[in-house]
Amino acid sequence: MDSINFIKGYGKVQDLELQHQSPNPNTNTQKKPFVTAVSILAILFLSLTLGAMFGVLVHMAASDPPSSSSSNSAVHDTDSVIKAVCNVTRHPDSCFSSITSFSLCSSSRKLTDPEAIFKLSLRVSIAELSNFKKTMISNSNQGAAFADCRSQIEDAVSRLNDSVVAMEVCSGGEKALTETKISDLRTWISAAMTDQETCLDGLEETGSTALDEVKTKMKKSQEYTSNCLAILANIHTLLRNFNMPLH
C-alpha cells in the first residue's frame, strides 16, 4: 500500500487577523482549505497535549491487576482502559459511550489494547456514517448539493473502510500497525473528516434549507471520526504507557 501525503483538514477556525482586513468576496472559497488545515493541526496538538496529561492514568489502568475471582472486575478494568484511551480525544464522553456500546454488540472481547480500541473506534465511525448516508439517500430529491454531499459521505466511509482493512493481519509476521500504516491511516481519517466538512460547506454555499438538519445528524459522525484521529495521533504514547510495542 502506497503512503499518501498527509491531508490536513477539518473544522472551521475563526482567524482573528481576518477581522482587520478588508472584505473580499472572491477569497471566501480560497480561505477554506487554509482554515481547515489550521483546524486539524489544532486537533492534533490538543490530542497530543491530552495524551501527555492522561499518560499516568493510562499507565495506572494498564498496571492495575484484575481480580482473579470477579468477572465484574474484568468489565471495570476494560472500561477503565477505554476511558483512559478516550481521554486523549476532544470528545471523551462520546468516545467512551460509543465504543463500549459497540463492543457489546460485536464479537469484541475484553479491550485492554489501545490498538484494538482504535480499530473499534474506526468501526464505530463507519457505522455512524453509514447510517447518515441512508438519511442522505432518503432525501435524494433535495438537489445537486445534496447529491454532492452524499458522494462526500460515501467517500468518507470508503476511506475509513480502507483504514480498517489496512489493520487486518494476514500472516504471523505482519503488524496491524507500522509507521507506514500510521501515516496512511492518518491521511485517510483526515480526508474522511474533510469530506464531512465539504458536505456541509456545499449545502451552506447553496443556501440549502436542509443545512441545519444535516449538521445535527452529522454531529455524531464528526465526533467519532475526530476521536479516531486523536487516538491514532497518540497511539505511540498509549502503547508506551501500556508497555506495548506496535503489534
Automatic annotation (TrEMBL):
EC number: 3.1.1.11
Protein name, entry field: pectinesterase
Gene from which the chain derives: LOC115963995
Membrane-spanning intervals of the chain: 34-62
Domain Pectinesterase inhibitor: 77-231
Family: In the C-terminal section; belongs to the pectinesterase family.
Highest rank taxon of the organism: Eukaryota
Family matches, as NCBIfam families: PME_inhib (TIGR01614)
Keywords associated with the record: Disulfide bond, Glycoprotein, Membrane, Signal, Transmembrane, Transmembrane helix
One Pfam entry name: PMEI
Organism (species): Quercus lobata
CDD domains documented for this protein: PMEI-like_3
A GO molecular function held by the record: pectinesterase activity
